[in-house]
Amino acid sequence: MSAPAFARLPHPSPVADDVRAAAIADPAFGRVFTDHMVSIRYTEGQGWHDAQVMPRGPLTLDPATAVLHYAQEIFEGLKAYRLDDGSMALFRVEANAARFNASARRMAMAELPEELFIAAVKEAVAADAHWFPPVDGGALYLRPFMFASEVFLGVKPASEYQFLVITSPVGNYFKSSAPAISLWVSEDYTRAAPGGTGAAKCGGNYAASLIAQREAIAKGHDQVVFLDAAEHRWIEELGGMNMFFVFDDGSLVTPPLTGTILPGITRDAIITLAHDAGLTVREEAYAIDQWQADAESGRLTESFACGTAAVVTPVGKVTRGEKSFTIGAGGQGQVTEMLKARLVDIQRGRAADPHGWVTRI
After folding, report:
1. Cα 10–14–20 angle (5° rounding)?
2. How many helices (H) and strands (E) does the chain have?
3. Residue 328 lies in a domain
4. What residues have CB less than 8 Å from 211, skipping those under 6 apart?
5. Residue 164's domain spans which residues?
6. Within a domain: residue 176?
7. For 111-123, what is each residue's pLDDT tens digit?
8. Residues 252, 197 within the same domain
9. Other CB atoms within 10 A of residue 355 CB
10. DSSP string of 50-74, one letter each residue
11. How distant is the alpha carbon of residue 26 from its chain centre?
């Protein structure tokens, strides 16, 4: 079956220009939303159908809708950027489409053809490009997601799904003026285990991490870092970001993709850009005790987290129980700064795009 064409439904009352201008002047991350959304439905035996660009609004769900009981739900996160020539562009949207389907397979959900995923994202950006925020680090954050929409009570994969894309004007993820974030090491909670859903971008992974994140904030930290489920020794990732470690010889280490952490698209881009810069990157296990020892000896000079929302964020302080240690000078290091600048310049169209990551709209 060929991909369905998108019907475009007129918005009866879009947000007034002055109200929109005020909303995007300094938007908190994930709090402001645009006028439209994209919706596509799936029915077993029929495939994908009813593709629409429509006014954003509440969803009406039966109390027995499968997702509410069995949590068959996945999502993606990506950004649309304004380039210097005024056009809009997406960064590595093909990778998001591929990861979306990898998550769908793990959650026993219908796969969405990658070209349809990309078309839906482009439609969402085109519909609300005038919502782009005029702030430092501004972008349109796109949230494609899919859930089991079949109405039934029974433990089995659903036969009906709804895919949607909503759009949010955003600025910088972290509003703090601190030079780096601080982390709390969770030793009581585990984000994912071998054979689980750690590599899938599903809501349950994030729900499981929230109690540890709340603990971190209560103790005065910005984020939580999780250790492996088996030995509680090896660093895995934050609640929503991958980790990198920079050493005094200029080399980098990042935890390997063993099925318990999300294969970050920003993570993959950082590895490629580091190689481009002639740096050595090792994907290998790194222990929490070694992290502290290397930081205290000076062998470790920088640590940073990365992800679509926060891009690249330096880590300055880590606390484990009653003990804390500082990374380098406690701020952004030279390698972190260089890699972030190279990544952002490509995303914004200010530098050459040798890997074909940018898709203009």
Report:
1. 145
2. 8, 18
3. yes
4. 189
5. 7-170
6. no
7. 999 999 999 999 9
8. yes
9. 12
10. EEEEEE--PPP--TTBTHHHH--EE
11. 21
Q: Look up the pTM and report it.
A: 0.95
Residue found under tokens 């996945």: 74
pLDDT in tens, 48-107: 999 999 999 999 999 999 999 999 999 999 999 999 888 999 999 999 999 999 999 999
What's the pLDDT score for residue 192? 93
pLDDT digits (tens, 9 = 90+) for 291-308: 999 999 999 999 999 999
Residue 27 lies in a domain: yes
Mean local confidence (pLDDT), 6-31: 95
Instruction: Please indicate, yes or no, whether residues 202 and 97 belong to a single structural domain of this protein.
Output: no
Domain match, 229 and 165 both: no
- Alpha-carbon span 272 to 244, nearest angstrom: 13
Instruction: Indicate whether 1 pLDDT > 90.
Output: no
Distance, CA of 17 to CA of 323 (rounded, Å): 52
The helix (H) or strand (E) run that includes residue 270 is helix 265-276
The phi-psi region of residue 92 (left if phi > 0; otherwise alpha if psi is between -120 and 50; otherwise beta) is left
301/206 same-domain check: yes
d(CA 354, CA 63): 49
Instruction: Give the C-alpha distances (Å, rounded to integers) separating 295 from 44, 161, 291, 322.
Output: 54, 48, 6, 17
| Residue-averaged pLDDT of the chain | 96
Torsion, Cα 313 336 291 190, to 10 degrees, reads: 30
pLDDT at 151: 98
Residue 245 sits in a domain whose CATH number is 3.20.10.10
